[in-house]
Design goal:
Shape: elongated
Distance between the termini: 76 Å
Helix content: 10-25%
CATH class of one domain: Mainly Beta
Length: about 525
């Protein structure tokens, strides 16, 4: 019994020690939320170059194609890594293009077996944008094409349809006060840039989107001419010079009540449903009311639903600059500052809306803007807010509850690091020269199951103690029974001996009587 109490005392002391050390671990100045899913760093690669952020990189499910920059020597690179962190090749775009001005990569996109790479050179009055083509398998440089000389503003990641690869830019032509949609159409079968056609549309656009082509149609969000609009274009006609711009337009859906558009996102297409977004301002021009709208392609883009005006109920939350994440009928959107949300794709109903702070009290945190991409693993959404002390925050997709975080990422704040997920591994590329792979398990931190474990262990020890005690009692009873049996036998033997003596005495008395 004494040993049992000593074990219980030891386990209780262990609980106190773990709880105390946990408080020290998590309480970094202010109290952070404690939930955390176990993770292990599988590998860490020091690339030696600043890796570009967000959608500037690409991943085809097997290989990573990373845009990187040597800031000291003003050179741009593309690097290919496999899932085990092995560098397959590294191509110097600045050197291969024989153009020292091309020192910054804007996009890397794999289209078929080719990499379409958009680079630019910052200059006054405008930037020079080039297309470079590199073999995705070997890294061989094939050639370049000057897209715009002196005025491009931003662009969508290159995309493909049919026999055409498209490069879409927003261009500020000389004398214009707005940025016009400019589309370049290249021959998909050619390894060198062969231009099939190019078009300029009089749509005001400011783009930083990720994918725009679905089933032969190109979807663009725009201020057209004044209100937010969803524009649908025919990809086959875009590539054919015989069609006019007007003949390439399938549909223009203008939101009459709006006065701005979330051009940073672009539309999201899921199962013939097109999710677009726009904002409204009050008379002061300050208060923003962001809304999502869903259109059905099969019904001539009829509006199915529109999100309520309280889609982002916290005052001051801004539009996201990263793509929406779709999972199991839900769309998760990262807001520009402080908040994230999730809505039902079937009816636009807001499911949950919460902060993206590392702290129990979000007022202790600030500037956690969600530029970065989110990924899904095991019904959980992983997102890295900007200015988040280099952490990934993990949310339960069903409830929106923060269920963990990863803080072991060496990177600077304010950077939109890309995330990818394969199986139970998370891959993170950072602008501070590092490329990480973490393995995630569903085991939670020790303090969340130590008490139940303590109770179970206590019952086991107590049960063992009772069993041992029962065995000892049985052994004692057995020894008593044996001893009692021996005593009974001894008494019986004594009685037998007494009877024998008595009978012997009686026989002697009979003999004496006969002699007399």
């Amino acid at each position: 019994m004494k040993r049992y109490y000593l074990i219980v005392l030891f386990l209780f002391s262990l609980i106190i020690l773990i709880s105390f050390s946990s408080c020290i671990w998590w309480n970094n100045g202010e109290l952070k939320f404690k939930e955390s899913i176990d993770h292990q760093l599988i590998w860490e690669k020091h690339v030696g170059l600043s890796i570009a952020s967000m959608n500037y990189n690409d991943f085809d499910g097997t290989y990573f194609y990373l845009a990187a920059e040597d800031c000291l020597n003003d050179e741009a690179y593309v690097l290919k890594y496999d899932l085990d962190g092995n560098l397959k090749w590294k191509t110097n775009i600045t050197e291969s293009s024989l153009d020292p001005s091309q020192d910054n990569i804007r996009q890397v996109k794999k289209l078929g077996n080719l990499l379409y790479i958009i680079s630019f050179y910052f200059s006054i009055p405008g930037n020079n944008y080039y297309l470079h083509i590199v073999d995705a398998e070997s890294g061989q440089y094939y050639g370049k094409y000057l897209l715009i000389d002196g005025g491009a503003y931003d662009g969508i990641a290159p995309d493909t349809d049919g026999n055409t690869n498209f490069v879409i830019l927003s261009y500020d032509y000389s004398g214009n006060t707005y940025h016009q949609l400019t589309i370049f159409c290249f021959d998909k079968e050619s390894t060198t840039p062969v231009l099939l056609n190019s078009r300029v549309f009089d749509f005001e656009v400011v783009m930083n989107s990720y994918k725009c082509i679905y089933n032969g149609k190109m979807y663009i969000t725009s201020d057209y001419p004044k209100n937010a609009a969803l524009i649908v274009l025919d990809c086959e006609k875009l590539a054919d010079p015989s069609y006019t711009n007007e003949e390439c337009i399938i549909k223009i859906i203008e939101e009459q009540e709006s006065n701005d558009v979330w051009n940073w996102l672009g539309p999201t297409v899921i199962d013939n449903k097109i999710i677009s977004s726009y904002l409204m301002r009050d008379d002061s021009g300050y208060h923003r009311d962001y809304r999502f709208a869903c259109y059905d392609e099969s019904k001539d883009y009829e509006k199915i639903w529109e999100s309520p005006s309280d889609m982002t109920p916290e005052y001051g939350s801004s539009a996201p600059e990263a793509p929406l994440t779709y999972f199991n009928g839900k769309l998760i959107y990262p807001c520009f500052n402080y908040y994230v949300g999730c809505f039902d794709i079937t009816n636009g109903k807001l499911i949950w809306f919460t902060d993206n702070s590392l702290y129990e009290d979000p007022s202790n945190d600030s500037l956690n803007n969600n530029y970065a991409m989110g990924v899904v693993m095991n019904n959980k959404w992983y997102i890295q807010p900007v200015y988040s002390i280099s952490a990934i925050i993990i949310y339960d997709i069903t409830t929106g509850k923060k269920v963990g975080r990863i803080e072991d990422i060496y990177t600077g704040v304010g950077v939109r690091n890309p995330l990818w997920v394969v199986g139970n591994r998370i891959y993170v590329a950072t602008w501070t020269d590092y490329f990480y792979c973490f393995e995630i398990s569903e085991r939670y931190r020790t303090e969340y199951f130590i008490i139940p474990l303590f109770i179970v262990i206590s019952f086991i020890f107590y049960g063992g103690y009772k069993i041992r005690k029962g065995k000892k009692n049985k052994e004692k009873d057995r020894e008593k029974s044996i001893k009692k049996g021996e005593e009974i036998k001894e008494n019986k033997d004594n009685r037998i001996s007494f009877n024998e003596l008595y009978e012997n005495k009686m026989d002697k008395d009979r003999i004496i009587l006969k002699l007399i």
